[in-house]
Design goal:
Length: about 220
Amino acid sequence: ALAATALFWQAVVTSLGRIVAGILTGLAAGSLLAVLTHFIPPLYTLFYPFITVIRSTPVASFVILLYIWIGQDTLPIFISVLLVLPVVWANLHEALGGVDADLLEMAHVFRLSPWRRLCRIYLPSLIPALAASCRSSVGLAWKAGIAAEVLVVPALSIGRYLFESKLYLETTDLFAWTIPVTLLSLLLERLMLRLMALAERRHPHPAQPTERRARHATRR
């Protein structure tokens, strides 16, 4: 019955847009921060305590603090960013530190351009780490964004209707609104992982061809 109403789809699209914007912003910010802290070590010392605080602080505390400073409509975006950024930063920073030194030395000897180094060496090493970050953070960011909507009750959102279902003890509506939350979480996570798989296929790890040849030679 809800799916036949315009308000249902408007709330779904609005919540999805907010949280996807937060996830993409978190991915971009975490990736940029990982690059900066890897190539400029003093920045790692500077940002590490802040990232630790973000990871350790409960989401509800951030919701209450940010609600004081920013509007309720943009708060789910910031909550999603805070869930995604630390995970992306940690995984990519570790992946950058694990890039094959021999490949970097070879790129230096052959004077490869920065763009070719990025495409041929860094991206193949970073995409698996980025995929792992999406796998562990996208679903959490979606659920945290919906929880933030429940707490601050922005207009025209899934969280608002979940809050009203709880307020008026409408158990049927509560279950009905929970279904799209669960389905959208699964679809969003699958979509991000699918995109990462396509990117990994486009930029395979440099060691993979050698491994394939080794396996083929062993079979022969």
